[in-house]
Amino acid sequence: MPQFLEAHVSPEAYDRWLARKAAAHVKRDRARGRIATRSAYKSAIYSAVVMSDGRDAYTGEQLDWHLISTYRNDASSEGRHIYKASFALLPTVDHFEAGASAADLRICAWRTNDAKKDLSSAEFVELCRRVVAHANATACNSGRASDAVTHYSTRVENDS
Predict the structure, then answer these.
(1) Which of 66, 130, 127 has its CA nearest to residue 118?
(2) 64 in Cβ contact with 41 (< 8 Å)
(3) How do residues 122-152 score in pLDDT, each as one tens digit?
(4) What is the C-alpha to C-alpha distance for residues 44 and 54, in angstroms, rounded to an integer?
(5) How much is the pTM?
(6) Burial bucket for residue 81 (CB in 10 Å: 0-12, 13-18, 19+)
(7) Is the CB of residue 2 less than 8 Å from the CB of residue 46?
(8) Ramachandran class of 121: left when φ > 0, alpha when ψ lies in -120 to 50, beta otherwise
(9) Strands, E assignment, the chain
(10) Tens digits of per-residue pLDDT, 74-91?
(11) N or C: which end of the chain has fewer CB atoms below 10 A?
């Protein structure tokens, strides 16, 4: 387990998370015709976690590592959006380039991974730029969308 996680998660929870993530990505990638092994993916995920230093690879936000292995489908069904929103900064494993033949992985927040889907990193960044450009050019409900973007950007910078 990477040393920076020792204050956030037990070795058992981390090992369980690592095994589950490796198994899920192996299954996904084999279905896409790639050669994938659990040991290779566990190693790639471990490297991605170390490289992350606990932060989202795309936003730089500090991830909530204590959330790993705590998501419950039954609670999600009951709490719906509010429950899922509480896991926005749950660390997830992302294929940096969705079409890559090797496991080129990054760690990011569930919210980020959900937004990125199967986009390449360049496509995702371009999408984000278009969203911000549109927000800056469009009025939104009670004020300018750019005010919301500025507020969010300031919050992210303060989290860093």
Answers:
(1) 127
(2) no
(3) 999 999 999 998 888 885 544 554 555 555 5
(4) 16
(5) 0.79
(6) exposed
(7) yes
(8) alpha
(9) 91-95, 105-109, 139-140, 143-144
(10) 777 776 788 888 999 999
(11) C
Yes or no: say if 64 and 92 are a contact pair by the CB < 8 Å rule: no
Q: Six-digit token pair at 17?
A: 């998370």
Sequence-distant (≥ 6) Cβ neighbours of residue 40 within 8 angstroms: 103
**Length of the chain, in residues:** 160
Taking CA atoms, 74 is separated from 15, 16, 54, 77, 85, in Å, by 23, 20, 28, 5, 15
Contact 73, 58 (CB under 8 A): no
Closest CA to 95 of 87, 83, 107: 107
**How far apart, in whole angstroms, are the C-alpha atoms of residue 12 and residue 26?**
21
Given a contact cutoff of 8 angstroms between Cβ atoms, the answer to whether 34 and 81 are in contact is no
